[in-house]
Amino acid sequence: MSDTPLASPMTPDAPPPMAKPVAKPMTKTRLEAFSDGVIAIIITIMVLELHTPDSVSVEALLHILPTFLLYALSFIYVGIYWNNHHHLLHATQRINGATLWANSHLLFWLSLVPFSTRWMGESDFATIPTAFYGFTLLMPSIAYYILVRVLIACNGQNSLLTTAIGKDVKGMISTGLYIAGIALTFWNSFAGLACYVAVALIWLVPDRRIEHD
Amino acid sequence: MSDTPLASPMTPDAPPPMAKPVAKPMTKTRLEAFSDGVIAIIITIMVLELHTPDSVSVEALLHILPTFLLYALSFIYVGIYWNNHHHLLHATQRINGATLWANSHLLFWLSLVPFSTRWMGESDFATIPTAFYGFTLLMPSIAYYILVRVLIACNGQNSLLTTAIGKDVKGMISTGLYIAGIALTFWNSFAGLACYVAVALIWLVPDRRIEHD
Amino acid sequence: MSDTPLASPMTPDAPPPMAKPVAKPMTKTRLEAFSDGVIAIIITIMVLELHTPDSVSVEALLHILPTFLLYALSFIYVGIYWNNHHHLLHATQRINGATLWANSHLLFWLSLVPFSTRWMGESDFATIPTAFYGFTLLMPSIAYYILVRVLIACNGQNSLLTTAIGKDVKGMISTGLYIAGIALTFWNSFAGLACYVAVALIWLVPDRRIEHD
Amino acid sequence: MSDTPLASPMTPDAPPPMAKPVAKPMTKTRLEAFSDGVIAIIITIMVLELHTPDSVSVEALLHILPTFLLYALSFIYVGIYWNNHHHLLHATQRINGATLWANSHLLFWLSLVPFSTRWMGESDFATIPTAFYGFTLLMPSIAYYILVRVLIACNGQNSLLTTAIGKDVKGMISTGLYIAGIALTFWNSFAGLACYVAVALIWLVPDRRIEHD
Questions:
Q1: What is the pLDDT of residue A8?
Q2: Does C82 touch chain A (CB under 8 A)?
Q3: pLDDT tens by residue, B92-117
Q4: Is there a contact between D10 and B32 if contact means CB atoms under 8 Å apart?
Q5: CB-based contacts of D74, cutoff 8 Å, min separation 6
Q6: What is the pLDDT of residue D36?
Q7: D30-42: b or e for each residue (b if 16 or more CB lie within 10 Å)?
Q8: Is B196's pLDDT higher than 80?
Q9: Between C11 and D153, whose confidence is greater?
């Protein structure tokens, strides 16, 4: 016992000191921390894209108001994903390797939101950039759905997670609204934008499914 | 025992032993981690805005001294919010979905500080940018007040939080000074700036209300 | 008992009851948190390098598709390192001062990936930038190997870590493919790039060595 | 008992359920997390300053080699502070409000390193920028000293921290070398730079004072 390097204290979840050490199950702490870091950066670097007004008048400030509101909208979308990710991982009890990739996949699509926000803002809401903006909102919603499926596969059909997620009606409506918004953009950019804004509104009500189920 | 939703806590990784798993209350760990991430980025990206001096002389360095001091001032404001946020969440025992949004709302306004700092610096303290800078300091103070109210509603009137916050005289004085500063800016930018600096000074004394109550 | 430096562990905040306090062993929590932060920033700031299309047409969007795919590729590489780092530290029970430097060394080389990605993208896959991109992928793989050795030296040959890592065939194949890719670049950039892509593909299968050993 | 909102489980370090709730001592977790975030960003955004070579030749790559080495040097300095901060906080058992400000003070000066690195690189190691670079290395070393004093005042003369820190000979030598380097810069920039490099070298040996005392 005294010569095994594994018998030390201070490793609160250390495996029992058997001959061949065994692996501990993965914990979700670092997955949450990494996701928090990436989402925090995505949500914050968008403000770096904001150009200062051309002059020091109130008119110049009002001139950038649409860009400003667009920034606020993207802030809300990324904030929604952070909130939902928080609720989702909170209800999760196990993760595995597939979870890590499904999570990175979600973060990848979210990381494009600052890019599409910038392009749409620069283009004054032209058709293609506005449709592309919708695309960069649609893809995270699909990636989030995949992440939920992978987590449920890992945690079991009878788990807290499955009960907590339920039918995810809000998620399905959101995906539908994004697709509708992209299509509408080709008729009128602002009709498409209205669909995107509708998604933000239905999520601003806190998601009580997991928290209080 | 069987009807309490808090049964078998503290073993987050264990599979629930009951037929229908129940949700755990939300913990504040991730809220703190996400806020730390966002505030760390806000406070750090401001230095990216600092333009290097035009030449390699001491004069050129002194020429950017006002911008440098402005950066230091904004660093202090964001640092104040991190400190207070730390104290506030430290005294908090429960959070809910409304808390997440109130917190994101605070982070949104804080995220505009690098933008307003840049504009005020570029404009050499013109009236509108200096007033707008005050606005981006005022809004977080209001958002912070809302966050405190939401947290108290969630934690209860008799909670540690309520006792710790007390009357928040400093917070009310700060909000008043920001409003006064914005108004004074239209008379003289530096009078407004003096009000903002006064707020920084009253907060640099560590907040002992929560820590040592 | 009195000569063990590990006495009274697990009560990190309690004042030591002995005359001369003794040091606790280092924990890996902060090493993980700092690495998560740096990797999260590396993976996210790459999107800041993406230039918006020149016009608002689908053609302009397709024109930046290679740059976009390059961004996705770099995202995957950095994601691979985060995943492997997660698995590696998960199996680690002790760290020491040498570990901190070996870890920073890995982070240093990873931090060059956004730079080399940008150069290769700007140069339209010219020979030297493409070889340099391979170099900035090769160096982290060597730094990762060093980190593994340092961790094994610290944790002992009989530790969970040693068992979990095994022969690291994937790691050796990756390093070989990077070297081959750099060499091939001087014949044809896209042959080199194909080698790099091959590495990404062999890692996208989740690493089950540590997780399920 | 049943009507107090504080008697719930799941708050592992909750105060005992007395009539008037009492404050818990501050924990260092968030201080570490915030510092990790800020230092991670400082160390990573420096690579954003690296300009890609003008052409796609090896010569163009070699042309930016001094800037590259300068980046590596600044990476090492910030890494040294992270390492030392890690060791310091590891040995710390208590923090207070003054600690938060002393820590933010250190982070402020560290946040200027990317700025001074950029200026010195752009100026091809001119006198004033090189001296200013030394200044932005000197100030964190002073801020670190203040942080150590504040922590010792908070933890007590007999604490683990005091024992672990010892005389801090390395720290004093570093501060001396920075001052010497700044002075030497006015004779020859590279003599000053040599002093700065010497500091990096004496720290690259892991600090065993706290770890193994």
A1: 36
A2: yes
A3: 888 888 888 899 999 999 999 999 99
A4: no
A5: D46, D113, D114, D117
A6: 87
A7: bbbbbbbbbbbbb
A8: yes
A9: D153
Q: Alpha helices, DSSP H only, in chain D? A: 29-45, 58-63, 65-90, 97-111, 113-122, 127-155, 160-165, 169-185, 189-204, 208-211
Q: Which residues of chain D lie closer than 8 angstroms to B211, CB-CB? A: 23, 26, 96-97
- Contact between chains at D45 and B40 (C-beta distance less than 8 A): no
* Residue B138 scores a pLDDT above 90: yes
Q: Select the residue of C10, C40, C206 nearest A34 (Cβ to Cβ).
A: C40
Instruction: Evaluate whether ipTM surpasses 0.85.
Output: no
Residue C56 has a pLDDT of 81
Residues 44-63 of C with CB under 8 A from D: 45, 48
Query: Which of C25-29, C151-155, D66-70 is the least confident region?
Result: C25-29
- Give how far C61 is from chain D: nearest CA, Å: 24
**Residues contacting C201, CB < 8 A, separation 6+:** none
Burial annotation A184-193 (CB, 10 A radius, 16+ → b, else e): bbeeebeebb
Q: How far, in Å, CA of A97 to CA of A89, rounded?
A: 15
Measured distance CA(A178)–CA(A116) in Å, rounded: 14
Beta strands in A99-178 (DSSP E): none
CA distance B22 to A163: 9
Distance CA C138, CA C60 (A): 33
Q: Is 70 exceeded by the pLDDT of residue D17?
A: no
Contact between chains at D8 and B10 (C-beta distance less than 8 A)? no
Mean of pLDDT values over B174-189: 91
pLDDT score, position B4: 36
CA–CA distance, C111 with D98 (Å, rounded to integer): 34
Instruction: Report the half-sphere exposure of C19 (CA within 13 A, side-chain side).
Output: 1
For chain A, which residues score pLDDT lower than 70?
Answer: 1-26, 158, 164, 166-167, 205-213
CB neighbour class for B48 (10 Å; exposed up to 12, middle 13-18, buried from 19): middle
Neighbours, chain A (3 or more CB pairs < 8 A): B, C
DSSP assigned state of B77: H
Cβ contacts (< 8 Å) between D158 and chain C: which residues? Answer: 21
Asked if C81 and C140 touch (Cβ cutoff 8 Å), the reply is yes
Cross-chain CB nearest to D97 (options B33, B39, B206):
B206
Q: How many CB atoms lie within 10 A of CB C145?
A: 17
Q: How far apart are CA D11 and CA A18, in angstroms?
A: 33
What is the arithmetic mean of pLDDT over C6-22? 39
**CA atoms of D79 and D94, how far apart (whole Å):** 24
Residue D3 pLDDT more than 50?
no
C-alpha torsion angle, residues D192, D196, D198, D199 (rounded to 10)? 150
DSSP 8-state symbol, D56: S
Question: What share of chain B in percent tops pLDDT 70?
Answer: 82
**Termini Cα distance of chain C:** 34
